[in-house]
Write a structure and sequence with these properties.
Blueprint (H helix, E strand, L loop, with lengths): L11 H15 L8 H16 L11 H8 L14 E6 L5 E4 L2 E4 L8 E6 L3 E6 L2 E7 L7 E2 L7 H5 L3 H4 L10 H9 L7 H14 L11
């Protein structure tokens, strides 16, 4: 029987089976160190469940029945991109808040609305069908995750932000740029401005082309 798209609750048996699988896999709730350990745990439980007796086919295991039915299933026609998406405004300091943490977005989108896509291990900032920034997901609270390269337009107008702006604190720049700044640029009156200009040139000529890197 058909149901409304994205409305699985209209098929009670599907909902019940989802609840059963959740209970089989996660009750009691396992304590794991990270996603890699979770993957190993799920693979182990999958093998255990596949060896169980099928509830309707006497004398047969679940794995055997599934292997027989598998050729009849409709193949996946597109990769599954599992994420939670929300529309958020980028603050004047180039930050967007998601899942109790703040992530930096492109400076040119400050004051505008973007979409944040939260996956199991990353956060992507998207607008107009384009990926604007990507960060490793932070699982703490009240943390700030910055991508300094994407925030460069701010010090382009306010060079002092390179010294005091939150996105640039503790920035681990390539060694060649650090030497250039230390030995040449900051010894001049326009040192901060020249520093910004050098960083912008480096971003354009970086290994991944214009806009390097993505974060």
């Amino acid at each position: 029987m058909a149901c409304t798209p994205e409305a699985g609750w209209e098929k009670g048996q599907a909902e019940n089976q989802a609840g059963n699988v959740r209970e089989w896999l996660f009750a009691p709730r396992p304590k794991l160190a990270g996603l890699a350990q979770l993957d190993d745990w799920l693979e182990t439980r999958r093998r255990e469940l596949a060896g169980r007796a099928h509830p309707a086919e006497e004398g047969r295991a679940v794995a055997g029945c599934f292997a027989e039915e598998r050729p009849l299933l409709r193949p996946a026609t597109a990769p599954f991109d599992g994420h939670v998406e929300k529309s958020l405004g980028v603050s004047s300091t180039c930050l967007a808040q998601a899942d109790r943490n703040r992530y930096s977005g492109p400076a040119e989108w400050a004051g505008k609305v973007v979409s944040t896509r939260l996956t199991a291990d990353s956060l992507r900032v998207v607008a107009g069908g384009q990926l604007l920034a990507e960060h490793a997901r932070c699982f703490g609270r009240g943390q700030m995750v910055c991508g300094p390269w994407r925030c460069l337009p701010v010090p382009e107008k306010k060079p002092g932000a390179l010294r005091h702006g939150a996105p640039f604190r503790g920035w681990d720049l390539p060694a060649a740029i650090r030497r250039l700044v230390r030995d040449r640029l900051l010894k001049h009156a326009r040192g901060d401005q020249a520093f910004v200009e050098a960083l912008l040139l480096a971003r354009e000529a970086g290994p991944d082309g214009p806009g390097w890197p993505a974060s």
